[in-house]
Amino acid sequence: MLFCDKHFEKEFLKIEKWGRYAAIPFFTIMTVFYLTPYPFNIPFHHWVYHTVFSLVGVIFVWFSIRFITYQFRKRCRKFRIALRLSLQLLASCITSILIILILHRIGMIFFHDELICEPYNSFDLKNLLLTSIVVTFLINTIYESLYLFLRLSETALETERYKKESIEAQYQNLTSRLNPHFLFNSLNTLTTIVEEDSKKAVSYIQELSLVYRYVLNSQKNTWTDLPSELKFTNSYINLLRMRFEDNLRIITDICEKHQGYYILPLTIQLLIENAVKHNEISSTHILELKIFCSDEFLIVTNNKQKRNIMPASTKVGLANISERYRFLVNKEVVIEDTETTFTVKIPLVKATS
């Protein structure tokens, strides 16, 4: 019986209900067998008396312990768990003993002749009370075990949820903006192009607007289809080509069979941005990137030619993409870093109906 939140209480009651349906018949049968001398030595109607009284006793004990457990957990939150459990067990045992004594008295009043005749001499009060105490301990154990199990499961789920939300927030922060340096460099490039070729400048502005429109729209969606992502990527590549000209070579080769897959928005752009950021790009150091699909992975690979002065990097982008795939579809992003190449394999996700 939980009191801390409605969802948790609902889940616990659901489990407790099925536990009750299984445990009450089990304890009833065990009590009957334990308190009778031998199954074949007593008349059938004695079995009926025992079964009825055992069932009633177990039901009363179960719901009494259920109520006591709820009250102690609700009202003794500040107690140490050992003290709370000790008091809870003591209260449960006293209540169970009182219930059994009352039922025993009722049985002796209404069924006195049957209960004192042979072979019912073994039906003594001591065994009856001992049985009630054992049953009380077992029921308390069941309740506390169910509560602890569900609480640990709920805590684990909450931890995962908060971690996922944190990753989502980080990713939204990444996708809500392109690298500020990209915008700064784009404006510088635009300034140069305007002076040289006005038509080319118009094309550049159109591509830039497409890029930023896609970035804004991508914040609304968890996934995007591969054709849309590639269309955006091509606009982004065109901007880079206008800036780096022939010093940057990007080859995109996506098969038709992969067009129906989905990917996280801006994934390819982030990988291209990382390659441009961390590698030397000049007429003597041409950067080559290849974007293609193999099996159910989208692969982005580039040759390595590290800059002499490496820019500051938080390495959040790639790590965040990896975490997102792990959480959302339980798939791993594969990273292969060799002496000459850097390759990232992004899982492609099929649409679910």
Can you describe what's shown?
The chain is α+β, with helices and mostly antiparallel strands. The chain has two domains: 6-159, no CATH class; 176-350, Heat Shock Protein 90, CATH 3.30.565. It contains ten helices and eight strands. The protein has helices at residues 6-35, 44-75, 81-110, 112-116, 125-175, 180-196, 198-218, 226-244, 267-278, 316-329, and strands at 224-225, 248-253, 261-263, 287-294, 297-303, 334-337, 341-347, 349-350. The strands form two sheets. Strands 2-4-5-7-6 form a five-stranded mixed beta sheet, with helices on one face. Strand 6 (334-337) and strand 7 (341-347) form a beta hairpin. Helix 7 packs antiparallel against helix 8 (226-244). The longest helix is centred in the middle third of the chain and has 51 residues, at 125-175.
Describe the structure concisely.
With 353 residues, the protein is of the alpha+beta class.
Mind sketching the topology for me?
Blueprint: H1 6-35, H2 44-75, H3 81-110, H4 112-116, H5 125-175, H6 180-196, H7 198-218, E1 224-225, H8 226-244, E2 248-253, E3 261-263, H9 267-278, E4 287-294, E5 297-303, H10 316-329, E6 334-337, E7 341-347, E8 349-350
Parallel strand pairs: 2-4
Antiparallel strand pairs: 1-3, 3-8, 4-5, 5-7, 6-7
Helix pairs in contact: 1-2, 1-5, 2-3, 2-5, 3-5, 5-10, 6-7, 7-8
